[in-house]
Amino acid sequence: EAGVAQSPRYKIIEKRQSVAFWCNPISGHATLYWYQQILGQGPKLLIQFQNNGVVDDSQLPKDRFSAERLKGVDSTLKIQPAKLEDSAVYLCASSLYLQNTGELFFGEGSRLTVL
Amino acid sequence: SQQGEEDPQALSIQEGENATMNCSYKTSINNLQWYRQNSGRGLVHLILIRSNEREKHSGRLRVTLDTSKKSSSLLITASRAADTASYFCATRDSGGSNYKLTFGKGTLLTVNP
Question: For residue B20, what are the CA distances in angstroms to A35, B49, B99?
């Protein structure tokens, strides 16, 4: 079974530029999560989808971050314009469905450096 | 916001010793999970304990949960160099409709050969 795929693995941009990250969850997983992990900290939930609907985006900085999951499968997270403090690893995870309170399956992450 | 707080922040032990990490949380939970993260990699699920369970084992892992104290501990027995990683506890909310999984700040475990 293929795992959660993310790309790119690494991205370096200058502040005020834009960047997009892509995630393809495990086949059949209805729930998709984007987490932000700043160096030395635990992952922080940015947004949670159930199929193509947003379940929770309370910690997403909506003035610069956006995310979509148009067909309920893969998802894109965009940052525009980027700030220095956005330097972090962006982790995508998936799980079977919202009410399944079991484990999350994580991708390898996309490491963003903002100069 | 982060729900769980792991203790200690960093732990260094010798191969063969046991490692114990603790986690405290603040609200009612459906379950508590532990994850491992090797440097530069994604998180990997280790073990899940439900709110009505007190102890669970999986291989060399032992997890306890005390809901009255809102705390959990992860014990890794007979540690190996390959256990070197960051360990995070994560709590599933019991209330609301989004079943959010919230992570703590983690414990960095170093196992010296």
Answer: 26, 16, 28
Distance separating alpha carbons of residues B75 and B47, to the nearest angstrom = 11
Angle subtended at Cα B29 by Cα B25 and Cα B30, rounded to the nearest 5 degrees: 145
Structure tokens at B68: 């009255």
Chain B residue with the nearest C-alpha to that of A108: B42
Q: Which residue in B29, B36, B39, B43 has the most chain A C-beta atoms within 10 A of its own C-beta, making it the best mutation to test that interface?
A: B43
Residues B10-57 have pLDDT tens digits of 999 999 999 999 999 998 888 999 999 999 999 999 999 999 999 999
**Residue B99 and residue A99: Cβ atoms within 8 Å?**
yes
Minimum Cα–Cα distance from B40: chain A residue:
A108
Asked if A48 is an interface residue toward chain B (Cβ–Cβ < 8 A), one would say yes
Q: Which pLDDT tens digits describe chain A residue by residue (115 residues)?
A: 689 999 999 999 999 999 999 999 999 999 999 999 999 999 999 999 999 899 999 999 999 999 999 888 999 999 999 999 999 999 999 998 767 678 999 999 999 999 9
How many Å lie between the alpha carbon of A23 and the closest alpha carbon of chain B? Answer: 13
B25 and A CB contact within 8 Å:
no
